[in-house]
Amino acid sequence: MAMGRPRAFDREAALDRAMEVFWRKGYEGATLAELTRTMGINPPSLYAAFGNKEGLFTAALDRYSARIESYLADILAAPTAREVVSRMLHGKADYLTDPANPPGCLYVQGGLACGDDAKNVPAELARRRARAEVALCERFERAAAEGDHLPPDAVPAVLASLVTTLIQGMDVRASAGATREDLHRLVDLALAGLFPTAAAPNAPLRSSPLEGAA
Fold it and tell me: How far is CA 205 from the centre of its chain?
């Protein structure tokens, strides 16, 4: 009797499930047994589709990154630097505490406590975080060239680094149990300090870049 073909699996759905495991457990904490069980596939199928655990993690990161970068493009299209920062930080406060997703951000949570056999993972996560910082810097450079209001004596690269640092701090607080309201209060305080003479902000962006991803 001829053997049938192996049952195909939904790659995107499987990646979404793997992404959630990596997000909750980090690369090191996500075992192959848990990944294959959650994805609904067996180990040979995982290796055939993704090569190995690191290949699966990279594929999950690519899926996560595509959504984050689409969200970031919408934010960078805001008309002023202040609104860019407001939408970025308020939007992060929402998505970091979105009950539909694990707490925090995969770019940070994924690289916690990696051993020597996963030494490429923290560097890859740092590279992806840096892409967003570069995009912010370029947007602030354009704002300065257009005569937009920036914080006093602000250097675009330093301002982009500060916003990125604030986001990473929010991620840590969200992972430790900070509420959405807690994070929005921190954002309001940061905006008041950065743009003390700016007009009242427009309504912040209240949507998650990964809504429905998990």
Answer: 16
Residue 65 neighbours by CB distance under 10 Å: 16
Q: 56 is written with which tokens?
A: 């699966």
Letter for the amino acid at 12?
A: E
Asked if residues 156 and 144 have their Cβ atoms less than 8 Å apart, the reply is yes
DSSP 151: S
Distance CA(46)–CA(14), nearest Å, equals 10
Tens-place pLDDT, residues 166-180:
999 999 899 888 999
| Residue 206 CB neighbours (<10 A) | 12
Q: Which amino acid is at 205?
A: L
Q: Are 209 and 97 in contact (CB under 8 A)?
A: no
Nearest CA to 61 among 108, 107, 116?
A: 107
d(CA 193, CA 85): 12
H-helix segments, 30-155: 32-39, 43-50, 53-76, 81-96, 106-109, 120-145
Q: For the chain, how far is it from start to end, CA to CA, in angstroms?
A: 41
Distance (Å, whole) CA 97 – CA 94? 5
Does this model's pTM top 0.90? My answer is: no
pLDDT tens column, 124-174: 888 888 888 999 999 999 999 999 988 878 899 999 999 999 999 999 899
Residue type, 65: S
Q: What token pair was written down for 13?
A: 């759905």
